Amino acid sequence: MVFSTSVDDFRDVLKRSENIVVVAGAGLSAASGLPTFREKGGLWRSLETSSLATPSSFNSDPSLVWQFYHHRRVKALEASPNAAHRVLAELAIPSFLKAVAPAAKSYHLITQNVDRLSVKAVMDLINKSDMNRTSYDSDDPRLDSVIEMHGRLFDIQCTSCGHCEEDLSNPLCPALGRAEELRDSNAQTSKIKPESIVVEELPRCRQCGELARPGVVWFDEKPRKLDEINNLVQRADLCLVVGTSSTVRPASGYAYRIQRHHGTVAVFNIEPTPGDARADFVFKGPCEVELPRVLGIT
Ligand code: BV8
Ligand code: ZN
C-alpha cells in the first residue's frame, strides 16, 4: 500500500471518525528533552540500561535500578509538555475534539511513556479552562482518556503489600539525593557503576515499610489496563501512531489490529518505520511540528 501525505484527505477522515486512538512512544517526549530509547547512547542501546527495566535486575541490584529511575525522575521533573503533548491533550477536551472530529464518540491516548507529560498537558488545560478550580479530581473523565500502559515513573509501588501511590518528591529519599550528587556529571554515558545504597536506605512503602519499587511495567510484566485497551482497539476507526519505533509488544500490534478491521492508520515519525508500508497516512517530521500542522490545532 502506498501511503498518503495529504492533510486535506486526513482531515476528511478525521471528520468522519467516531472512535479515535493514539498510540504514543518516546518520540512524543523527545522535544521536551527526554532521550528516546533508540538515540545513540540512549536508554535503549546501552546494555545495562535496557536490561535494567526488568524484575530480575531489580531483585539482584535494587540500588542500581533505583538510581537509574531516580535519574529519569529528575530529568522528567525538569521537562515540560511540548506542542505535541498539548495538541493530544486538547483532543481530550470534548469541545476541542468536536471542532476537528464532529462525529467523534471517544478519544484515548495510549502512551508507552512513563514520564507523566501527557497527563500534565491535560491537567494544564483543565486548570486553564477551570481557572477558579484549585484542584482537579484525579478521576476527571478528561484525564481518563490518557492510558499510561507501561506504568508511571512517579508511582511508588510496594514489593510486599502492593500499595501504590504517586510521589513527585525529589529526591525520594536522602540516599538517592546523595547518590545523584556523588555520581559524575555525565552519569548517563559513563560506565562507572554508581555507589551502592544499602537496601534499608532505598525508598520504602508508606503503608508497611517494606522495599518499594518504581511503578513502571518492566519487561515480561503485564502492561496496565490491557482489557480496556483491547476494547478500544477493537472499536477504533482511526489510529494515530506517534513517535514510536513500534518495537515493544503488545503496543506495537495495535495499529495493525485496527487496520485489520478497516480502521485508518496515520503514522507521525521523524524517520521511516516498519509500519509505514501498511499505513494509510504518513506524516514524516517531528511530531511537535506535524501534529499541530496536520490537525490544524496550534
Ligand atoms: C508483556 C517502561 C506479557 C519502563 C517499557 C520476543 C519477541 C517479541 C516480544 C517479546 C519477546 N520476548 C518478550 C517479549 C515481550 C516484550 C517485548 O515486546 N520485547 C521486545 C523488546 C522484543 N514486551 C513485554 O515484556 C511487555 N509485557 O508482553 O507481558 C504478559 C501478559 C499477561 C500477563 C503477564 C505478562 C511489557 C513491555 C514494557 C516494558 N517497559 N517501559 C521504563 O520506561 O523504564 S518499554 C519502553 O521501551 C517504552 O515504554 C517503550 O515501550 C519502549 C521504547 O519504544 P519507543 O517508545 O517506541 O521508543 P524508541 O526509542 O524505540 O523509538 C522512538 C521513536 O520516536 C523512533 O521511531 C524515532 O524515530 C521517533 N522519534 C524521535 N523523535 C521524534 C520521533 N518521532 C516524532 N517526533 C520526534 N520529535
Ligand atoms: Zn507495603
What does this structure look like?
This protein has 298 residues and is an alpha/beta fold. It is built from 12 helices and 9 strands. The strands form 2 sheets. A 6-stranded parallel β-sheet has the order 3-2-1-7-8-9, with helices on both faces. Strands 5-4-6 form a 3-stranded antiparallel β-sheet, covered by helices on one side. The longest helix has 17 residues. The two termini are 31 Å apart. Bound molecules: ligand BV8 and zinc ion. Ligand BV8 binds next to strand 8 and helix 12. One of its GO terms (cellular component) is nucleus. Belongs to the sirtuin family. Class I subfamily. InterPro entries: DHS-like_NAD/FAD-binding_dom, NAD-dep_sirtuin_deacylases, Sirtuin, Sirtuin_cat_small_dom_sf, Ssirtuin_cat_dom. GO terms for molecular function: histone deacetylase activity, NAD-dependent; metal ion binding; NAD+ binding.
What is the topological layout?
Elements: H1 7-16, E1 19-24, H2 47-52, H3 55-60, H4 62-78, H5 83-90, H6 94-100, E2 106-111, H7 117-129, H8 141-144, E3 146-148, E4 151-158, E5 164-166, H9 174-182, E6 212-216, H10 226-235, E7 238-242, H11 254-260, E8 264-269, E9 281-284, H12 287-295
Parallel strand pairs: 1-2, 1-7, 2-3, 7-8, 8-9
Antiparallel strand pairs: 4-5, 4-6
Helix pairs in contact: 5-7, 5-12
Bound molecules: ligand BV8 and zinc ion.
The site of zinc ion (ZN) has 8 residues, from loops.
